[in-house]
Design brief:
mainly alpha; 19 helices; elongated
């Protein structure tokens, strides 16, 4: 009876390969289970059977591999945390480049400035931001960027030449502003004449360190005749074609001289070079008002106002355009709200009172 129980136990616990492997030497058996033959299919030095080797591969992961994946997971998690901000900043950079391609320098400057607040040590970004400010004709901003961000940085030769050209242009501009302000500050309001001021500005042209375009604009404003003013404004446009504010002034003078086609060409030239020149866009809108296309005139002036609501004479143009389009209540509401932070041209009130009309305000 005991013999049968022992036999039964052996039969139940026996491996299906036991009969086949009964005659195997210990050296040929798997060193893990000691039952199956060693699988030498891939290597003659294998010490495991097929089943044990597969189990070992599936379960045994080296500690170094586990550590590697843990570190990789931490890095990936950190990257995922910062990725949204990085992607968003890259989108801002792409938008800035797109604005540059479209000559929308003011918008590009705003985008580059946002990036510069984060990457203030990047010399290429500093130069890009300063360039955008220069082309947007924000000379004070450009000077601040260079003074606050570029001074003390290490520049390569190309970057140094680039920065030098920018600082030289800014130097000429601010030299002229200072010299002109000094002339007007020292002028006696009781004895000073326009002719004397005109002569003093003429003398500034002899200094090569002054900005001739800016000086020509002042000479145009001080000229005694419309023809002479137009000539000086034209010279201002010709001496420096990078900036468009002389073209805007030139276009406005041509409009007052009723040279409408020339005025339109000057303003369009400005907008083609600087799509954010709100003064020139407004100038085109005024010409449309004068030509009778009131709706188009309002649309252009609204565009100019959206770009720069504080640009000189643009708010006045929008008030008048609204009135010319039958929106007087909106115009008056704008005057009341805007007057808190903007000084309107006194003649605007004459227009609103009906003392002068559109033609008289913009031509006569």
């Amino acid at each position: 009876m005991n013999t049968m129980e022992e036999t039964t136990v052996q039969t139940i616990g026996a491996d299906p390969y036991s009969d086949r492997n009964a005659d195997m030497d210990d050296d040929t058996r798997c060193e893990q289970c000691h039952i199956h033959p060693k699988d030498k299919t891939d290597s003659e030095y294998s010490i495991l059977c097929t089943q044990c080797r597969e189990e070992y591969i599936r379960l045994h992961v080296p500690a170094i591999v586990i550590l590697f994946f843990v570190i990789l997971g931490v890095i990936f998690a950190g990257a995922m945390i910062h990725m949204p901000k990085t992607v968003e900043r890259y989108k801002i950079y792409l938008a800035a480049e797109k604005h540059i391609d479209a000559n929308e320098y003011l918008f590009a400057y705003e985008d580059f400035s946002a990036l510069l607040n984060v990457y203030d040590d990047s010399v290429p970004l500093i130069l890009d931001t300063a360039d955008a400010a220069m082309n947007a004709q924000l000379f004070n901003d450009a000077a601040d960027i260079i003074d606050e961000n570029l001074v003390g940085k290490t520049l390569n030769e190309r970057q140094y030449e680039h920065a030098t050209l920018t600082t030289e242009k800014l130097g000429r501009f601010f030299n002229s502003v200072y010299a002109i302000n000094q002339i007007f500050d020292e002028a006696d309001p009781d004895t000073a004449s326009v002719d004397k001021l005109f002569s003093q500005v003429i003398e500034l042209l002899e200094n090569p360190e002054n900005d001739k375009a800016l000086l020509y604009l002042y000479l145009g404003n001080l000229s005694s005749t419309m023809e002479e003013s137009i000539d000086y404004f034209r010279m201002a446009c010709e001496v420096d074609e990078q900036f468009t504010y002389p073209l805007s002034t030139y276009g406005n003078a041509l409009r007052r001289a009723q040279r409408f086609d020339d005025a339109q060409a000057a303003c369009q030239d400005a907008v083609s070079k600087n799509a954010c020149d709100s003064s020139s866009i407004s100038g085109l809108g005024i010409l449309e008002l004068l030509n009778g296309d009131k709706a188009e005139g309002l649309s252009l002036i609204q565009q100019a106002y959206a770009i720069d609501p504080d640009c000189v004479y643009v708010p006045e143009a929008l008030v008048i355009a609204l009135c010319e389009n039958g929106q007087r209540d909106a115009a008056l509401d704008m005057v009341n709200k805007k007057a808190e932070q903007y000084l309107f041209d006194p003649e605007l009130q004459d227009y609103l009172d009906g003392t002068i009309d559109l033609q008289q305000y913009y031509i006569d």
